[in-house]
């Protein structure tokens, strides 16, 4: 199902989650897949920045928690794979068992950074290719999509990023992803010169890449656009505004129009389903 997301006509919009609650909200909003974002997991599950602080086990645990509350296909950010070929094989298989439908591996040095932060460093191209080959060979299910991401644009230039995309396709990557292009023209060039298979693109608000509508990105040659941190950033802004108001005013009556009711939130987190199950079992 996830491979179909990348290969069917048009472009699909996928929202990112770092927690089970965000995943439930994404499903409720009607999306067909969820991007389990490394940035969002670091922020939501650990309250930390996306600079390589959490490891493979924590990533698997975060994925399992999200899988427990949704049946939607999960596209998982697996950072660098957390080691060399044997480690990457292990990471891929553990993520598959935890419910991943697609797994993204990147070419940054460890510890990695969010693709829109300064100071990124990438490994040599042969090591980057070896990571993708290990992920492809290591997956148990051939239907698990391997997404090859390159962060080479910033440290080495767009030409090197495009060269790596070609190498990743030769290594068996199902989908390629050049992170953090810096203009619409660069997005166009990537769409044209990396057009040998499905392409994914990242819209990270206030980051290095200009925000374009999904329809325009589709015209430029992309199959899927992810919005990895939109939900958590909007939620954080709203929560901070409420908490500041609560501290100043001493109540939340003024904020009720912007809040879910208790009943609405109970619905989102599945209280009705669990109550129905309890009634069925207990009679």
List keywords for this structure.
single chain; 283 residues; alpha/beta; TIM Barrel; eight-stranded parallel barrel; 13 helices; 48% helix; globular; ICL/PEPM; lyase; Isocitrate lyase/phosphoenolpyruvate mutase family protein; Pyrv_kinase-like_dom_sf
Describe the structure.
Keywords: Lyase. This is Isocitrate lyase/phosphoenolpyruvate mutase family protein. One of its GO terms (molecular function) is lyase activity. The chain is of the alpha/beta class and 283 residues long. The protein has 13 helices and 8 strands. It has an 8-stranded parallel barrel, surrounded by 7 helices. The longest helix has 20 residues, at 230-249.
Question: Into how many domains do the coordinates divide?
Answer: 2
Quaternary class: single chain
- The proportion of residues forming helix, as a percent range, comes to 40-55%
Strand order of the largest sheet: 1-2-3-4-5-6-7-8
Query: Strand content of the residues, in percent?
Result: 5-15%
Shape annotation: globular
Mean pLDDT: 96
Q: N- to C-terminal separation?
A: 37 Å
Largest sheet: 8 strands, parallel, barrel
CATH fold-level label of the largest domain: TIM Barrel
CATH class of the largest domain, named Alpha Beta
CATH architecture of the largest domain: Alpha-Beta Barrel
Radius of gyration: 20 Å
Q: Helices and strands: which structural class?
A: alpha/beta
Query: How many β-strands, per DSSP?
Result: 8
What are the low-pLDDT stretches, counting only 5+ consecutive residues below 50?
A: none
Order of helices and strands: HEHEHHEHEHEHHEHEHEHHH
CATH superfamily of the largest domain, by name, is: Phosphoenolpyruvate-binding domains
Number of helices: 13
